[in-house]
Q: What sequence folds into this?
C-alpha cells in the first residue's frame, strides 16, 4: 500500500517536471509581458514534432535534439512577440486572449492538416527501461526528462537572478515604467522572455518524445496542467509555478491510482476551481519572482 | 449645524506602509472643506476609504447619520456620496451623454428622464457642445469635466473632488472655482483635495492638513497657512519660521 | 442613431425580414437549408454570449456548459419521462440559470484571462461528469432521440423548413431582447462594467448583481439553443453537448462580427459559417482541420486589423456612403 503510494508520488513528480517547464513558460510570459499565452501547449507540440522528425529522418536522439528544438523555438518566440504580440499590447484583455487563442487553434489545425491525427512515437534504447530502487521503479526516459527539466529550471532561475538581462526582465515585470526610465528596452526584454518561454515549451516537447506520443492535440493536456499550476503557484511567480507543477503531477497521479484511470483530469480541474474559489492569488500571493 | 460626514480614528495599512493613521475630522453640511498635504500624505487613500474602495483597518466613517464602513461603493453612492478620480476614468467607448446618463440612472431608470438629468449636468460643467463626442476623444480637462458631470448626475449630497484643478491655467482655475462655488450654492457639501493654493483659499471654509498619513493641522485657511507644522511639511524645516502669503502653490 | 437613420434602417430591416422569411420556400437544397439553420442557431448562441461577453466584456469560454445543460435536461425529460421538448427547452433554461449562479459566483471574482480559464474549466468539468453519468444520462455513448416522424408537439418535423423557422424565432427573440436591454439602463450599465468596473461602482452600479443577472439571461438563452440543436440532430452525447467548439464559436462570432453590437454576432456567424460552407463544397468535408485553420486565420487577421470586430467597418462604410463624410469611429460607440 505504501509502495503503491510512493510509486504514485514518484510517477507524479517525474511528469511534474515536464509540467513545470510548460508552466514556467506560461508564468514567465505572464509576469513580463502581462499576457496569458493560450498557445503554449502548441509550442510543446511543435517541439515534439521537431524531435520526432529529427529522430525519424536523421536518427538523432530526442534528448540531443534539444540542441535544435530549443534554439528554434526561441527564435519562434522572438518572432511571435515582435510581430504579433506587440501589436495587441495595451488594447485590453480581449485582443490578447483571442490572439493567442486563435494562434492555438491555428497551430493545432495546421498540424492536423500537415501531420494528420496519427500518433507519432519515437523509440529509444532507454524508452522501456527503468531503474529499480527496492520495490520502486524509475522509468529511465521519465527520469532523464525530470532531471533535465529541473536543470533547465535551475538555469533559468540563475539567469533571472544573476545576469543583467535576467534582472532587467524581472524589473520590467514588476515595474515596467521604472524599467523603461532606466533604459531597459521593453520590446527587447519581451522578445527574450517569450523566446525563453517557448524554448522551454520546445524542450518539454523534446523531453516527452521518448515516452509520449506526438499528435496535434498533444499540447492541450499540458497547457491545461500548466495553467492550473500557474494559478496555483501565483501568476508570474516562477518558483511557485515549479512547485505547483510538481504538486499537480502528484495530485493527478494519486487521482489516477486511487480514484480511477480517467479521474486525473477531474482532480486537476477541481484543484483549479478550489484555488480560484478560496485563494485566487495563488499559494504565494506575491509578485513575479 | 448638522454634520454631513464624521470620520473617527480611521487607519489603513498596505503591507508595511501606513497610508492613513488615526485620522479624525468632520465636515458640516453645506460646507466646503479642503483636504491638503504633500504627495503621499494619504489624501486619495482617505477618499478611497470614504467611498468604500478600501476598507479601513479601524475607525468609523459616518455620513448623514449612516455608518459607511463595510458598505460597497455603489451603496455609498446611492446614499449620496459621489467622487471624481484623480486620473479621470471615463467610459471611453461611450459618448459624453451616455457616460453621464449612466450616472443619472442611479436615481431613475427611465432613459428619457436620465437623459434630461444628464443634459443638465453636462450643461453645468460646460460640455453641452460635445454631448455626442466619444469620451476617449476628449481632452484631459474635458474628461475631468465629464467626470464631474457624471458624479453630479447621481445627485449627491456630498461630493469628493480629487485634484480637479491639476494642470489648469489661471483662467481655467477661475472657471473651476466658480463651478465649485455654484455647487456649494446648491447646497452640496464638498470635500476637495487640491494642491492649488489659490483655489483652496477661494472655496474652502475649513482646511484639514495631512502628512504621512496623519492629520497635522486643521482650521480656517488663514490659521492653517500660518501654522509652522504645515509649512514644515511642505517646505521642510528651514522655512518653519516664515508665514506664507499669496500665490503660493505647493 | 435617430432621426434620418431611422427611416432607412427600418426599410433595410423590412427587406431583410422578407428575404429571411421567404428563403426556405425559395431555396430547396437541403444542404443550403442546413447551412441557414446553422447560421441562425449559432448567431443566436452568439447573441446570447454577446450580452455578457460583448457588452460587459466578461469573456466566457465556457458557454457550452449551458448549451449542454439545456440539451441534457430536455432530452432526459423527453426520453425518460415523455415530456415534450417544448417544455423541456424551458426547463433546460431554468436549469442553466440555476447553474449560472454558483458558476458566476466563482468565476466573477476573477478578471481577464483568468475568468476565461475558469469558465473553460467549469464546462470541462461538466463534460467529464456527464461522461461518467451512465445511469443518469447515458455516459460517453450518449443516446439517439427516437424518431417519431412528424410530431410537432415533440418538436420533431419532416420538413427542414420547420427547424429553420424555429431557429429564426429563437434568433429574433434574442435580437429583440438584446435590443431592449441595449436601450435600457441595463445596457448602459453593462457597457460601463465592460469599460471600467470600479468607475461604474463609483456611480452607483451594483456590479456584482448586474453581472449575475446578465449571466442568468445569457445562460438561459444558450440552453434553449442546446435543446434545439439536439432535437435537430437527434443525437446527444457529452462531447457534442459540452463541446469546447461551441464555446469557442459563441465567442468567435461576436468578436469577428463586432462585440457589444446588436448585429455583430449575426455578421460574424454569416461570415464564419459561410466560409466554412464554401470550404466544404470546394474541398469536401474530409479534410479535418481546414475549417478551424481558416477560422483561426480570420480571427487572427481581425484581431490584428480591427480588434473590436468587423461591425465598425460596416458602420464606417455605411456612414461614409450614406452621409458622405468620413467617420473615424474604430468601434461602435454607445451614445445617449
A:
Amino acid at each position: 500500500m505504501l509502495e503503491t503510494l510512493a510509486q504514485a508520488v514518484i510517477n507524479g513528480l517525474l511528469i511534474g517536471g515536464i509540467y513545470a517547464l510548460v508552466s514556467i513558460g506560461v508564468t514567465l510570459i505572464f509576469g513580463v509581458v502581462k499576457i496569458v499565452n493560450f498557445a503554449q501547449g502548441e509550442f510543446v507540440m511543435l517541439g515534439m514534432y521537431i524531435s520526432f522528425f529529427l529522430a525519424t529522418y536523421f536518427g538523432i536522439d530526442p534528448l540531443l535534439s534539444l540542441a535544435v528544438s530549443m534554439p528554434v523555438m526561441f527564435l519562434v518566440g522572438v518572432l511571435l512577440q515582435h510581430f504579433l504580440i506587440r501589436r495587441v499590447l495595451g488594447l485590453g484583455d480581449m485582443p490578447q486572449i483571442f490572439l493567442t487563442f486563435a494562434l492555438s487553434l491555428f497551430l493545432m489545425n495546421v498540424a492536423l492538416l500537415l501531420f494528420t491525427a496519427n500518433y507519432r512515437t519515437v523509440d529509444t534504447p532507454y524508452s522501456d527501461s527503468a531503474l529499480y530502487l527496492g520495490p520502486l521503479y524509475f522509468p529511465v526516459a521519465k527520469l532523464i526528462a525530470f532531471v533535465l527539466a529541473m536543470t533547465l529550471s535551475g538555469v533559468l532561475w540563475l539567469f533571472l537572478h544573476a545576469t543583467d538581462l535576467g534582472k532587467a526582465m524581472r524589473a520590467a515585470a514588476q515595474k515596467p515604467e521604472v524599467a523603461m526610465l532606466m533604459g531597459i528596452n521593453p520590446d527587447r526584454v519581451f522578445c527574450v522572455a517569450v523566446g525563453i518561454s517557448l524554448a522551454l515549451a520546445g524542450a518539454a516537447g523534446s523531453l516527452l518524445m521518448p515516452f509520449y506520443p506526438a499528435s496535434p492535440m498533444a499540447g492541450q493536456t499540458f497547457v491545461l496542467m500548466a495553467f492550473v499550476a500557474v494559478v496555483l503557484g501565483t501568476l508570474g511567480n516562477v518558483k511557485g509555478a515549479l512547485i505547483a507543477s510538481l504538486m499537480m503531477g502528484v495530485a493527478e497521479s494519486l487521482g489516477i491510482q486511487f480514484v480511477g484511470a480517467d479521474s486525473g483530469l477531474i482532480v486537476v480541474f477541481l484543484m483549479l476551481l478550489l484555488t480560484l474559489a478560496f485563494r485566487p492569488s495563488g499559494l504565494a500571493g506575491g509578485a513575479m519572482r | 449645524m448638522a454634520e454631513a460626514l464624521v470620520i473617527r480614528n480611521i487607519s489603513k495599512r498596505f503591507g508595511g506602509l501606513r497610508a492613513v493613521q488615526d485620522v479624525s475630522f468632520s465636515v458640516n453640511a453645506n460646507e466646503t472643506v479642503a483636504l491638503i498635504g504633500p504627495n503621499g500624505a494619504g489624501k486619495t487613500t482617505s477618499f478611497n476609504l470614504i467611498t468604500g474602495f478600501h476598507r479601513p483597518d479601524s475607525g468609523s466613517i459616518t455620513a448623514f447619520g449612516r455608518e459607511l464602513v463595510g458598505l460597497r461603493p455603489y451603496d455609498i453612492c446611492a446614499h449620496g456620496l459621489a467622487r471624481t478620480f484623480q486620473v479621470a476614468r471615463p467610459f471611453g467607448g461611450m459618448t459624453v451623454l451616455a457616460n453621464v446618463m449612466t450616472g443619472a440612472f442611479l436615481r431613475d431608470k427611465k432613459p428619457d428622464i436620465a437623459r434630461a438629468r444628464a443634459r443638465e449636468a453636462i450643461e453645468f460643467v460646460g460640455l453641452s457642445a460635445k454631448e455626442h463626442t466619444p469620451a476617449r476623444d476628449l481632452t484631459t480637462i474635458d474628461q475631468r469635466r465629464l467626470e464631474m458631470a457624471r458624479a453630479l448626475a447621481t445627485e449627491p449630497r456630498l461630493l469628493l473632488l480629487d485634484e480637479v484643478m491639476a494642470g489648469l491655467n489661471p483662467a481655467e482655475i477661475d472657471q473651476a472655482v466658480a463651478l465649485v462655488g455654484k455647487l456649494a450654492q446648491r447646497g452640496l457639501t464638498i470635500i476637495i483635495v487640491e494642491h492649488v493654493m489659490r483655489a483652496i483659499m477661494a472655496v474652502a471654509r475649513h482646511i484639514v492638513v495631512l502628512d504621512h498619513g496623519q492629520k497635522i493641522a486643521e482650521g480656517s485657511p488663514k490659521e492653517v497657512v500660518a501654522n509652522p507644522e504645515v509649512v514644515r511639511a511642505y517646505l521642510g524645516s528651514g522655512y518653519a519660521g516664515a508665514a506664507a502669503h499669496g500665490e503660493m502653490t505647493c | 442613431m435617430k432621426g434620418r437613420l431611422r427611416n432607412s434602417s427600418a426599410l433595410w430591416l423590412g427587406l431583410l425580414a422578407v428575404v429571411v422569411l421567404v428563403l426556405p420556400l425559395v431555396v430547396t437544397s437541403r444542404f443550403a437549408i442546413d447551412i441557414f439553420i446553422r447560421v441562425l442557431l449559432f448567431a443566436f448562441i452568439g447573441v446570447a454570449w454577446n450580452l455578457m461577453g460583448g457588452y460587459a466584456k466578461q469573456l466566457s469560454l465556457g458557454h457550452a456548459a449551458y448549451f449542454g445543460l439545456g440539451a441534457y435536461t430536455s432530452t432526459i425529460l423527453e426520453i425518460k419521462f415523455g415530456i415534450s421538448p417544448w417544455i423541456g427547452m424551458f426547463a433546460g433554461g431554468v436549469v442553466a440559470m440555476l447553474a449560472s449562479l454558483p458558476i458566476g459566483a466563482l468565476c466573477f471574482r476573477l478578471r481577464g484571462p483568468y475568468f476565461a480559464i475558469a469558465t473553460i474549466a467549469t464546462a470541462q468539468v461538466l463534460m467529464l461528469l456527464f461522461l461518467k453519468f451512465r445511469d443518469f444520462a447515458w455516459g460517453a455513448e450518449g443516446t439517439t432521440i427516437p424518431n417519431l416522424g412528424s410530431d410537432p408537439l415533440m418538436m420533431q418535423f419532416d420538413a427542414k423548413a420547420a427547424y429553420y423557422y424555429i431557429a429564426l424565432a429563437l434568433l429574433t427573440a434574442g435580437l429583440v431582447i438584446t435590443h431592449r436591454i441595449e436601450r435600457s439602463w441595463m445596457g448602459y450599465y453593462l457597457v460601463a462594467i465592460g469599460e471600467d468596473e470600479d468607475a461604474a461602482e463609483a456611480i452607483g452600479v451594483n456590479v456584482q448583481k448586474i453581472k449575475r443577472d446578465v449571466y442568468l439571461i445569457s445562460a438561459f438563452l444558450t440552453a434553449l439553443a442546446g435543446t434545439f440543436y439536439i432535437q435537430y440532430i437527434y443525437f446527444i452525447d457529452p462531447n457534442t453537448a459540452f463541446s469546447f467548439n461551441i464555446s469557442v464559436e459563441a465567442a468567435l462570432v461576436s468578436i469577428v462580427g463586432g462585440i457589444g453590437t446588436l448585429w455583430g454576432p449575426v455578421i460574424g456567424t454569416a461570415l464564419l459559417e459561410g466560409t466554412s460552407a464554401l470550404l466544404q463544397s470546394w474541398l469536401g468535408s474530409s479534410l479535418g482541420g481546414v475549417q478551424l485553420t481558416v477560422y483561426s486565420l480570420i480571427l487572427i487577421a481581425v484581431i490584428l486589423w480591427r480588434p473590436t470586430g468587423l461591425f465598425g467597418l460596416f458602420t464606417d462604410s455605411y456612414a461614409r456612403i450614406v452621409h458622405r463624410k468620413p467617420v473615424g469611429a474604430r468601434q461602435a460607440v454607445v451614445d445617449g
User: Anything to note?
Assistant: The mean pLDDT of chain A is 87. The radius of gyration of chain A is 18 Å. The interface with chain C takes residues 35-36, 38, 84, 87-88, 91-99, 101-106, 108-110, 112-113, 117, 216, 227, 231, 235, 262, 265-266, 269-270, 272-273, 276-277, 280 of chain A (CB under 8 Å).
